[in-house]
Hints:
CATH architecture of the largest domain: 3-Layer(aba) Sandwich
CATH class of the largest domain: Alpha Beta
Number of strands: 22
Number of domains: 2
Bound molecules: ligand PMT
Radius of gyration: 25 Å
Strand content: 15-25%
Amino acid sequence: MAETSVLSGKRILLVIAGGIAAYKCLELIRRLKERGASVRAVLTKAGAEFVTPLSVQALTEDTVYQDLWSLTDESEMGHIQLSRDADLLVVAPATANLLARMAAGMADDLAATVLLATDKPVLVAPAMNVRMWEHPATQANMALLEKRGVRRVGPNKGEMACGEYGPGRMAEPMEILEAIAGYFTERDAPKPLKGKRALVTSGPTYEPIDPVRYIANRSSGKQGHAIAEALARLGAEVTLVTGPTHLPDPPGCAVRPIETAREMLAACEAALPVDIAVCAAAVADWRVAGESDRKLKKDGGGPPALSLAENPDILATLSNAGAKRPSLVVGFAAETGSVVEYATAKRARKGCDWIVANDVSLGTTTFGGADNTVHLIRNGGVENWPTMGKDAVAARLADTIAQHFQNKTP
Ligand code: PMT
């Protein structure tokens, strides 16, 4: 749970759109003000059908901004200033309509204009009918907004005002308050890796057999993406080179999607110079030699013989990059037995500084699962970390990297 005292003195611009959940905003305003935040509100035309400007004004103790064309509002505060004169913009409820207008970059009312003109972070609390939330259009709009850095809290699952059941209920006021506090806690946290550039590889590679078939592996990208996010959270400027995954882009990272090992190598080399490289991708060691540019046909002559060619080794290439070598190169080792022993040998063979060993034997869920049990192998010896969520492994690895740069540990 985020510490809500961080809200003291923070300026929130609350955009209230037109949904039945708008009434919950009144409670949100009260709770924010109790914790010392100031709240200024923009109320859309539809929002004013659900809560009155008077109640919002009474609780915010401020003017309620409603009309892009209101001369009074503009004389008191222009919409540009309104959009910038806050630490965080919160949209609650964020309706399907407003999310769509935000994604399209429209400026057709005060709320949309303020959201387009702002240079401040934005948190949305979606609220709508379950079918509207699940509609591909809304999902695409939300994904686009999140890719652009918009944060989201909810929606929750539950019974809707319309009687249907599923995700679409706006997060409760205290959950929104927690998300707001979480943003400030993260923003104000120390940034020991500020000024450092980091490169992270993640996910599988796809090695084509022909235009429709490929060789791949079971990496989900969860571990690598979590590491990229954790390094960015500590202030590093992160480039994430990733094979195909179903994960959203981690916030604050420049993402370079690739498919093959050769593309991954090219994207990594293009990201140099960096201070830190973490290779968590499950790169295919081999590709199909002479991949076909036409779909291989079943011609009655039996299955085609596939011969393999060796892929470039990205970790070894980065570790031996001469003047361009990152000052700290961290590899991963996926082993199915004698994990620490094989990983130690791999570290020496590839020339990286640290190696994070994990067991990928049958029966483990290291590939694809939520948790990981790792051993960090450095000059100083081996640290056996307890089983943790991949996010926690990533956070601990990022902290260890930050300590390395602070004290130059092994
Ligand atoms: O993606 P998840 O589902 O979250 O799973 C996480 C993970 C199991 C993929 C991850 O924790 C992990 O172990 N990543 C490395 C997987 C791997 O390919 O291990 P390896 O032992 O084969 O390779 C050793 C190191 O060399 C790795 O850093 C790998 O990225 C790198 N490598 C390997 C081959 C190659 N051609 N180029 C490389 O850079």
